[in-house]
Amino acid sequence: MRVRIIAGRYGNRWLEAPDTRRTHPMGERIRNALFNSIQNELPGANVLDAFAGTGSIGLEALSRDAATATFVESDRTAYRVLCHNIDSLHAQDIAHPIKARVASWIDTYQGEPFDLIFADPPYHDLQLPTISRLFTLLKPGGTMVLSHTEKGGEPNLINDDIVVVDNRGYGNAHLTFFYRKIDV
């Protein structure tokens, strides 16, 4: 299986994807809609691709002028493919893969907050407590996009600092856009 980067400096380059059901690379149509809706937030952004799989979301962000991307993936096969994809694009200086469970990695992360967070957990295990904890890594004024199935509707993750600004459906796949308020 292969996944194509749609636009930008790596546009039309192909990424490898594991031949397994443990990852579900986001379809090109959905990725294109996602990136068209956040294109103004990408230049210079510090991006987190949680549950990275092939890295297609974070690598698309880098292709469209994000400054850096951190990729967190726990599956050994997916991680190996992710590293191969980063190497094939010669993006080692701006792409930082980490082999860890997202929940464990959050506990150890001590870097700067992220401008954009992409969370694409396995559809059969949404891990809402972990997703909620990702908000602590989101910069005020930042956006987090959660990919999930329509089952159960929009995840109820909002709090005093987080608001849902958009929710879009594409067949069985849904994208919910969360925004972290800027302190006034």
What features would you highlight for this structure?
alpha/beta, globular, 25% helix, 5 helices, 184 residues, Rossmann fold
Describe the structure.
There is one protein chain. This protein has 184 residues and is of the alpha/beta class. It has a single domain (2-180), classed as 3-Layer(aba) Sandwich (Rossmann fold), CATH 3.40.50.150. Helix content is 25%, strand content 31%. It contains five helices and nine strands. The protein has helices at 28-38, 56-63, 76-88, 102-108, 128-134; strands at residues 2-4, 14-16, 46-50, 68-73, 95-99, 114-119, 138-149, 162-170, 173-180. The strands form two sheets. Strands 5-4-3-6-7-9-8 form a seven-stranded mixed sheet, covered by helices on one side. It has a two-stranded antiparallel sheet with strand order 1-2. It is globular.
The computed structural class is: alpha/beta
Give average pLDDT, whole number.
Answer: 90
What is the CATH top level name?
Alpha Beta
How many distinct beta strands?
Answer: 9
CATH architecture: 3-Layer(aba) Sandwich
CATH-assigned homologous superfamily = Vaccinia Virus protein VP39
Number of domains: 1
Q: Determine the fraction of residues in helical runs and give it as a percent range.
A: 25-40%
Give the terminus-to-terminus CA distance. 47 Å
Q: Strand order, main sheet: write it out.
A: 5-4-3-6-7-9-8
Strand content: 25-35%
Largest sheet properties:
7 strands, mixed
Given as residue ranges, the uncertain stretches (5+ residues, pLDDT < 50) are none
Shape: globular
Radius of gyration: 15 Å
Count of alpha and pi helical runs: 5
Enter the CATH topology name.
Rossmann fold
